[in-house]
Amino acid sequence: MEGSTLPEVILTTDIDLPFLKEFLVDKFLVKESQSKVFSYTLIDSETPSLVILVFPFKNDKDGIEWIREMREYTLCPIVLVGQDIPFSFFLEGLDAGADDFLCQDLAECFQDEELQQSWLTELYTRMIALVRRAGRVGGVIEPGQEIVCGPLVLHLNEMNVSFAGSPVALTPTEFRLLQRLARNPNTTLPHEDLLTDLWGKQFANERQYLRVYISRLREKLSLEEDGDLTIETVPKEGYMLRIVQPEELKKANECQL
Prior knowledge:
Blueprint: E1 8-12, H1 18-25, E2 29-33, H2 36-46, E3 50-54, H3 60-71, E4 78-82, H4 87-96, E5 100-103, H5 106-111, H6 113-133, E6 146-149, E7 152-155, E8 160-163, E9 166-168, H7 172-182, E10 189-190, H8 191-199, H9 207-220, E11 229-234, E12 238-243, H10 246-256
């Protein structure tokens, strides 16, 4: 990170975690918030590179609602951190718009320095990966680069998407998944490859992650199963961005006559 501007991180928590704050301030510009309202103010004024949301946050449902509200006006990556929280809750957080999560017994981190360093290192690695993928550190894409798949256009430099001429708001993780599919149209991409690309090898078997994100992409793009552009589920294999060619569409229409 030397020689570059440090990414700004908003730490949103109502738990006192001195070891986490001490670790972050050495590597990021950290702004701390203990309320949703103040977090919104910071996001609007500071344009952060990433937000960390620590659970329990008042109560779990408050945190989920906070993620949904935040996603209405920012694509800033969100990482969820918590302990003793059901896996289904983290999936709900991803569905609401979070980009990653890390579950750890934070009380143990207070007492075990080796565990603490291991956990902080993993958190840091995930944070930097998200920041890079969101385009705020390195990895600059040449201006004007686009991927066009029928009515779908991905503007890589700006990291935004339009469908049939209308802009579509996607989170950084949704954008990366759609970009992976769009670079390989009409090709089945295995679950394991997509999961590894998005979250790393340790998540290669967590197929429910993909189900959440594929469902969100279909909803946001208003994709229909019989439309010209679809995200197909290939049973036991993976997913495919399928573009119906004009001759295929013609044959399909003739069959319906």
